[in-house]
Amino acid sequence: MSSRNFSLSAPARAAVFAALGLSAFVAGTSSALVAQQKSPAGTFAFSENPANKKDGIFLLDGKPFQIRGGEFHPQRVPREYWDHRIKMCKAMGLNTIAFYTMWNDFEQPDGTFDFKTGSRDIAAFLQLCKDNDMWVLFRPGPYICGEWDFGGLPAYLLKDKDAKIRTVKDKTFMKAQERYLRAIAKVAEPYLLKNGGPILMTQIENEYGSWFRKEPEYLRWLKKFWTEQGFAPLYMSDGATHHHLGGMIYPDKDICVGLDPGLNDNAWRVANEKNPGVPVFSSETYPGWLRRWGEGNWRPTNLSGNIRWFMKTGRSFSIFPVHGGTNFGFTAGANNDPRTGGDYHADLTSYDYGSPIDEQGRPTKEYHQYRQIIADALKGKEELPPIPAPIPVVEIADFTPEFFANLRDGLQPLGNGKKFKTAPYFEAFGQNQGLAFYRTTVPAGPAGTLDFDGIHDYAHVYLDGKLIATVDRRMKKAPVSVPAREKAGTPLEIMVEGMGHINYDNRGGSMEKDRKGIVGAVRLDGKPLGNWVVAPKPLTEASVAAAEKSARDAGALGGHFRGTFELSEVGDTFLDMSQWGKGVLYVNGHNLGRYWSRALDGRPVGPQLRLFCPAPFLKVGKNQVDVVEFEQIEARPIRGCKTRNFDMNDVKTENLNNQWD
Predict the structure, then answer these.
(1) Low-confidence ranges of the chain (pLDDT < 70)
(2) Confidence (pLDDT) at 18
(3) What is the structure's pLDDT at 36?
(4) Rounded alpha-carbon distances, angstroms, from residue 137 to 115, 615, 656
(5) Pairing state of beta strands 573-576 and 638-641?
(6) The pLDDT value given to residue 653
């Protein structure tokens, strides 16, 4: 990392600052550069604030620069829409795109990395940012949080029951993460500013000050890695408190401070105390908050006052997310939340987030407000481009899929029916989410109770082919009542659905313990059950498409339903699953994600009733829909709508705006 002084005179420097509206920074004499990235096309540097040595500023080509950022994740948006979303950001008055990259989406089962297929082509995304004259904040993790399954880490890291993550003390983790980091660095390196690309800064890890186990040597390892790869300048992000920033490796002149969020002078003061003389910015300015199954619908937090303050003071910011997109497939994460009565709460498929660019890519009323505030502040300096035309939407008339296959058909038990003393969790046999069927027998006896160390995350319990209970990890643990059995060797089957892995942990190991399936012992009247046979059903797109037709299984809930609909033209749509129960929806082989409209007893769950289906997943003519339903027996109608639903579970879910605890 090199540094040099720019030779701007004090009057010239004052004129530049004043022209950009940075009146707080006009006074002062010389400014020492702290860290910088040079290229034939320009330079990006950290500098001391000439007016206040405790503060810092960004310089682009020697001039004060305000990052006006917006975050969206290419892996949550169809590749065909990347350019549209970038242009939407630019039209709002932003000059920078921030984005995470999700390791567990890139790494394939054979250990190779796919950086080319569909929304994984990060090089193409970076090129589009460059083509649109947008700068980039690069956030490669390896841990990203982001309401994404396991915070972006691959679930195979949990195979060993004693595995640790985000630490130099676990050799398996360190070896795996270095493989990933070297791979993603190779993809991004041509797009660094010094190579003529748009990347201004690279983030080290993510919100490590919130992690329950503080390990400075891990952050130092990451800093050394990225510095050696030539990715400086660097930044870190966390809550704007002494506690969270104290978990970092500040003071460090090579690393600027991102605040999640930073909304006032007091937040900057805390950051300056931890890392004086280095720039600070609001790296995650929240337009809403995450939503989980059973909560209220998305609501925006109006950021107009915050945006106005950023523009008036020249503070840099990034709206997280400016466009949320969608957790397609099995990518949605979860949280450990004791407030629910259980220890788990899974995130929705939608990642709308209350963002100013909604899930379908349209501007909200807040978008127009923010655009006007930024345009007014930039009047005479920059002219905002027009807002891109909206992507067309279509309605689809009601159609009803037909029963196609039993969920239990085509299963291949592990090890040709090997019996396990203790039921293995998903990660032990290489599965991430989906379903698994656990089977054993129980002795004859009077009515009793069945209790579990852990059912992760939702299950149906069958005794002798009859449903006796459902187990929902969101709820407080309770034993299952078991009827009397007259015969020895009565079959017991537990169908377990693994949902998203916990992606945020500040309480003490919940991420490292969050394995899927049956975790630990299952006891009948206090005695552990053994001799388990396990049949996985991972519900991959390929396996669902290749399923063979079969007869209905009497007494079993759910099933695989298949149907078609015709289109004369394609457009985005939202498939309404409000008549269904709980399951996964596929269109033309694309996994749109989970729906959970109602509980088995008919109570609403939601709030999401409609799953976003983008036009690139559809085609003119016949389209095939596969519904893997876990609870309903009869097929119900589906329809395509032009908007997501706004009206279910209108409970007053608190919009936390990341109140760090």
Answers:
(1) 1-41, 337-342, 649-661
(2) 39
(3) 61
(4) 19, 29, 25
(5) antiparallel
(6) 53
Six-digit token pair at 415? 């090890």
Matching residue, tokens 């329809």 = 639
pTM of the model: 0.92
Q: What token pair was written down for 98?
A: 């921030």
Say how far apart CA 23 and CA 567 lie, in whole Å.
57
Structure tokens at 23: 């009146």
Q: Concatenate the DSSP letters of all residues of 438-482 into one string.
A: EEEEE-SBSSEEEEES-EESEEEEEETTEEEEEEETTSPP-PEEE
Give one DSSP letter per residue of 172-216, joined into a string: HHHHHHHHHHHHHHHHHGGGBGGGTSSEEEEE-SS-GGGSSS--H
- The amino acid that residue 158 corresponds to is L
Active site residues: 207, 284
- Ramachandran region of residue 493, left (φ > 0), alpha (ψ -120 to 50) or beta? beta
Residue-wise pLDDT for 5-22, tens only, equals 222 333 333 333 333 333
Name the nearest CA neighbour of 260 among 236, 291, 234, 290: 236
Task: Provide the pLDDT for residue 21.
Answer: 35
Q: Any idea which residue has 């239990």 for tokens?
A: 408
CA distance linking residue 194 with residue 635, whole number of Å: 58
Question: Across-strand partners of 437?
Answer: 495, 535
Cα separation, 147 vs 660, in Å, equals 16
Closest CA to 210 of 336, 348, 307, 333: 336
pLDDT at 38: 56
* Closest to 609 measured CA to CA, from 327, 398, 369, 297: 297
Residue whose C-alpha is closest to residue 193's, from 278, 240, 126, 259: 126
CB 234 within 8 A of CB 254: yes
Residue 151 CA to residue 140 CA, distance in Å, equals 12
Which amino acid is it at 304?
A: S
Q: Which amino acid, one-letter code, is at 144?
A: I
Distance CA 143, CA 103 (A): 8
- Taking residue 304's Cβ as centre, other Cβ atoms within 10 Å add up to 12
> How far apart (Å, rounded) are the C-alpha atoms in residues 440 and 451?
15
- Nearest Cα neighbor of 51 from 228, 313, 391 is 313
Report the pLDDT value the prediction gives residue 658, as an integer from 0 to 100: 42
Q: Given this model, what pLDDT does residue 6 score?
A: 25
Tokens linked to 160? 């060993």
The dihedral over CA atoms of 542, 548, 554, 555, expressed in degrees to the nearest 10, equals 0
* Spatial CB neighbours of 9, under 8 Å, sequence gap ≥ 6: none
Check if the beta carbon of residue 660 is closer than 8 Å to that of residue 210.
Answer: yes
List the Cα angle 294/627/323 in 5-degree steps.
55
Report how far residue 605's alpha carbon sits from residue 608's, in angstroms, rounded to the nearest whole number: 8
pLDDT for 336: 83
DSSP string, 295-342: S----PPP-HHHHHHHHHHT-EEEETTSB--B--TT-B-EE--GGGSS
Eight-state DSSP code of residue 250:
-
Tokens at 384, concatenated: 């905002």
The Cα 440–Cα 537 span in angstroms is: 17
Q: Could you count the other beta carbons within 10 Å of the beta carbon of residue 557? A: 19
